[in-house]
Amino acid sequence: MEVWQLDHPTYGLIEVRQGFDAEFRELYDDWPGDTTENGVWLPADAPIWARARTWIKNPPRRLEISVDGEMQHRYESLESARVPLFGQGKPELTVMTGLGTDRAKPHLKITMSPFKELLQIEFREGPTIVEFEPPAGSRGERRHEMMQSSTFRRTAIPMAEGLSKGGFALLALLLAPVFARVIAWIAGLLPDWELPEIHPPQVELPVPELPQVELPLPNWSFPDIDLPEMPAWVQWLAEYAEIWLPVVMGIAVGIIALRNHRKSEQQKAQWKSQEPAHEEPAQEAPPREET
């Protein structure tokens, strides 16, 4: 089980637990999950093929959010979404949708990998953004360490994650000429078949004759404006918007992630400066001897 924690100066300890039903049953006797088998946790440096195979074979992972020791939410599936921090504390498992989350109120922004691995959690309340520290040995810790190694990686990793959404479109654009030649080659090997003509029966249905009403229409004349021809690069952008738009979005995601990290570090430093200093009690002076 993975446990993500953030000590908030007002709300207390915020905990997010991710695990399988068998692991949660060790904590709660009345856990509502319906699976009994335990899943496999891979090391953070596991190759992508092993992560994909384990994700397919593993039972579903669950998520629980608690604040100051009180359960707030339990989710039956893991998705990248914004979820409210405080809830009704119902014991049943619900679907994580993130719809209708008020961004002005305390909530969590959860980032998952395609293999349902918890990568990042951010506490948010209006303009406040604070990142959780990932647990040791988790996939989130590996991602965090890579992003902390340099400013370039902190921007490039979220940017690459955003670009992955348009990866299939870029791949299709690059491989389209190859596919076209393969299909043309296969079509040349097939015999020239002629399909028989099919003549469906024609049925004439009676159509009622409706009265025609001619309304007076204004006779507007617009000036003939000779507009310049659209540049070729504008035509390309209009034709391949589904390809370049994810690229632009990926770049924006990287820039926003870098800005949010700086805001998180500033907020943590502010919380730390507001903590009361622990002063050692002053030692009493020994009593004077009367002369």
Automatic annotation (TrEMBL):
Sorted UniProt keywords: Membrane, Transmembrane, Transmembrane helix
Region described as Disordered: spans on this chain: 266-291
Tree of life domain: Bacteria
Ranges of Basic and acidic residues composition bias in the record: 275-291
Transmembrane segments: 168-190, 240-258
Protein's UniProt name: Uncharacterized protein
